[in-house]
Amino acid sequence: MAMSCTTTTNPLLEKFNTPHQTPPFDQIRTTDYLPAFRQAIAGAKQEIEAITRSAEQATFENTIVALDQAGEQLSGISSIFFNMASANTNEEIQKIAQEVSPLLTEFGSNIYMDTILFKRVKTVYENRAAAGLTPEQNTLLEDTWKAFVDGGANLAGENRERFKAISVELSKLGLQFDDNLLAETNDYQLHITDTANLAGLPESAVEAAAMTAREAGKEGWIFTLQAPSYGPFMQYADNRGLREELYKAYGSRCYRENAYNNSDIIRQLTALRLEKARIMGYPTYADYVLTDRMAKSPAEVNTFLSQLLAASHPHALKDKEEVEAFARTSGFEGELQRWDWGYYSNKLRIEKYALDDEMLKPYFKLENVIRGVFGLATTLYGVTFREVNNIPKYHPDVITYEVYDRDSSFLAVLYTDFFPRASKNGGAWMTDFRSQHVRDGKDIRPLVSIVMNFTKPTENKPSLLTFNEVKTLLHEFGHALHGMLSRATYTGTSGTNVYRDFVELPSQIMENWALEKEWLDQWAVHYETGEAIPQEYIDRIRNAANFQSGYVSDRQLSFGIVDMAWHTITAPVEEDIADFERRAMQPTEIFPPVAGTCFSSGFGHIFGGGYAAGYYSYKWAEVLDADAFSLFREKGIFDPETADSFRSNILEKGGTEHPMELYIRFRGQKPSTDALLERSGLK
Q: Got the DSSP string for 10-61?
């Protein structure tokens, strides 16, 4: 009897036979990841060993460039997997992440602690002056040298082994932090069955809650802790008791006494980061991290934050007084609490400016906003977008585009993923499945993804965005442009591979166009009537641009301040994390504390992401973007010469040179905080 035998291949380990060699998501099974990682790590080790064992004298090409190119398959698999772990996860993926992360961390540590390999890097580094390197090559060399030094290359004995062990443990803890936060966010539901408890809520929020209830197989309405559900409830619901309940549920995520409590994880993370810094000879983790930032020390960061706080806090206190006085005219008694702020603040905004999210949303249909954002990129940089259906997707919600330059040459693939789901982390982010680089003389173009959590369409309405969601899309699209327009030679210097406190400039500058009539007039039309957004609405948006800017600035500064507090500790924190946080954030506070809540337990940017000792960069980049956009305002918001300069000096350059040199080349001067304070109405 004849027997047939089939061999199951792993698509992650094959050459991607897809358009633009995009990941074959339609073929990848969850069970493919772990064996793919193991094989790719083994292959990457062989590539590293070939560099280490080379009998040739170490040169920039055979050592630094070879290192930049090594492990390309492993990098690709990692990009795919960890993007899925954030945007489309499940329990199996989470378990694989916990198994794979230590392997990857150990692999990286072994590279940086390879004494023979470090000797080769050191040889190239010490002879760099005579090597005739280009600015980009010199940057890659400097970055490689620093990665080895920061990765423990100079360590020996017990310190060496302890450094490696800490790195592995930190990778596990960061993943567990994010898994806990996602689980806590998904676990809570505010189930309403009495229509009286819907008072004040706009029709769109009620309709979305009804759809959520139907999907859960329940009667009535369900509100969740995901932003498109949580935000409108806190802003519009008349029922103060339910606002309080929802606020406390959100504010206590991962701080309750259950399996998802992040308190011990935070104490362990910060203690291990401190120990790691101490091993490297730094007094705090922030000192260790800030050696490759535009702000070079904790003192410089804290001075920067303090200066902005001094400018914004008096305004924040006045903002609260104004809202409190307004609330009392509506019959409110007592002291304004945090769950009252969004509700009364919104009502005051309506009274002062006749402006409300609900009146604007019909003009911000998601498809129209996308058209406007893409059109802005076409006007400024000449790039165009073509939706395609032949590129595999990791979820049905994803839309894929081919991106072309003004000369019709292919630039990138862009993935967009807009709506919340239980398998997706909260917030918004840009990432890539492949960075731009040159290999064997060929320009390998990037595969870029932007992920958001916008209001979903319902049975009766399309996805209608709030004004803040429009700005969020502009922000993430700015990151995407940074990746898509990259013209670097090496992976390590391309796209968003820049200093953490510079990476937010391309994103935050894009938000400025949201206030510009000339741009809004091009695409903002009523989704039902086709009527253009009225001029008076645009005037109101502009007039309200600085509404409560003191409070907004204070709130953002408080995040940066608590981040610096956690990462400038000189001894492990043993007290309750909320007590530590409250003391750090006290200079920014305008509300009484709420027992049982804690911001840090859900602060994924610094405990699950890469912003530890770096959250200040959002405010730092605000200074850059305000100063940079002032040139657009001076020359014209669509001025071709200014746009070309921003593209060629900032967006295309990635991390090929020091960011301040790139910025000055574009702007002609160093940035000043004056532009930010003036734009915000704080000066």
A: -GGGS---SGGG---TTT--GGGHHHHHHHHHHHHHHHHHHHHT--SPP-II
